[in-house]
Design a protein that fits this description.
- The protein is α/β, with parallel strands linked by helices.
- The protein has 2 domains: about 120 residues, Rossmann fold (3-Layer(aba) Sandwich); about 180 residues, Dihydrodipicolinate Reductase, domain 2.
- About 35% of the residues lie in helices and about 25% in strands.
- The chain is built from 11 helices and 15 strands.
- The protein has a 9-stranded mixed β-sheet.
- It is globular, with a radius of gyration of 20 Å.
- The chain starts with a strand and ends with a strand.
- The relative contact order is 0.16.
């Protein structure tokens, strides 16, 4: 295979971000089909990408495709992934894999061993996160003592408003902010601190109309012994520009700012030293480069699909902790 024929399945807000990344990052992938039950959305993406508007994966298969990028409401992940696997397609599936572990295991069991299955956790490719990971490995702040993840934004209209704001529905989303956008803040903690083993959390619903939690504040214990704080909030008012991440070690700190700057604090400069500049949206570009290379060149993915279960199990443990008001194990 010299070129990858791709179908976009689900032509909503997150698909728009992915198509932008494909346009920038890929040279060997062609979007040949845009699948959505809403014909207007499918047509709009078809016009933009040059692919054909389709109403189903079966229609896209009839055109001729090698892979699908599934970007639909969470409760539809399992049936569409199973359909794609049965057709022998490579699959990039938006996170979470599913909203319950048993559904995830059915998806993993159905994935053909001779096809690429990527779980689209773009934080694995976030430039600032990767720089912080390298600084940690280089001993820039000594031994890691603790970390902090802060995700606090007003709800974006493209994702939480409009004609079909499925993230407002608990039945469609399976959870709230911890299960959805919060995974992008939990994956970096897992990359830096080790595997998540135990959490204690509280949740709330400050965003009116959202059935799942729109606030989750948690302490997370990792197998390394490090304890980190995790905050994910959707609030309707204005918010400050607090750092997205803070890592504190025995010899200094690493701070990732909201605008993408990475600062290293070693005591020599009270404002820290800027050691890099990234952009969250660049993480989607890295994700797509990895998927394209895995399909066309056979290179291994940076993280397996099973790795993404850590974010799901972590969110579910936070929900249990909010109910029990005590520490909860993650892997149950």
């Amino acid at each position: 295979m010299k070129r990858l024929r791709l179908a976009i399945v689900g032509c909503g807000a997150i698909a728009d971000w992915h198509v932008n990344a494909i346009d920038v990052a890929l040279e060997r992938t062609d979007i040949v089909a845009c699948v959505d039950p809403n014909p207007d959305r499918a047509a709009a993406f078809a016009t933009r990408t040059g692919g054909a508007a389709c109403s189903s994966i079966a229609d896209a298969i009839a055109i001729g495709i090698d892979a699908v990028a599934i970007m639909v409401p969470h409760h539809l992940h399992e049936p569409l992934a199973l359909e794609a696997f049965a057709a022998g397609l490579h699959v990039l599936l938006e996170k979470p894999m599913a909203t319950m572990p048993d559904a995830c295991e059915r998806i993993l069991a159905a994935a053909p061993t001779d096809r690429v299955f990527m779980l689209a956790e773009n934080a694995q490719y976030w430039p600032e996160v990767l720089l912080a990971q390298q600084l940690l490995a280089d001993g820039a702040i000594g031994d890691l003592i603790t970390a902090r993840a802060w995700h606090c934004f007003p709800p974006m209209g493209d994702f939480y408003a409009g004609d079909d704001p499925w993230r407002m529905s608990l039945a469609a989303a399976g959870g709230g902010i911890a299960m959805d956008a919060g995974s992008h803040w939990l994956r970096p903690l897992r990359m830096w601190c080790g595997e998540l083993v135990e959490v204690v959390a509280v949740t709330g619903r400050p965003f009116p109309g959202m059935e799942g939690e729109s606030m989750c504040r948690a302490l997370c214990r990792f197998d390394s012994g490090v304890v980190a704080s995790f905050d994910a909030l959707l609030v309707p008012g204005g918010v400050s520009d607090l750092p997205l991440f803070q890592l504190t070690g025995t010899k200094g700190e690493i701070v990732i700012e909201g605008i993408g700057r990475v600062r290293h604090f070693d005591g020599s400069e009270w404002r820290g030293t800027v050691v890099g500049q990234g952009n969250y949206l660049q993480s989607y570009e890295g994700e797509w480069r990895d998927f394209e290379a895995a399909v066309l060149d056979g290179t291994p993915l940076a993280a397996s699909a099973r790795d993404a279960l850590g974010e799901l199990y972590g969110a579910l443990a936070m929900y249990r902790s909010a109910a029990s008001k005590q520490w909860e194990p993650v892997w149950v």
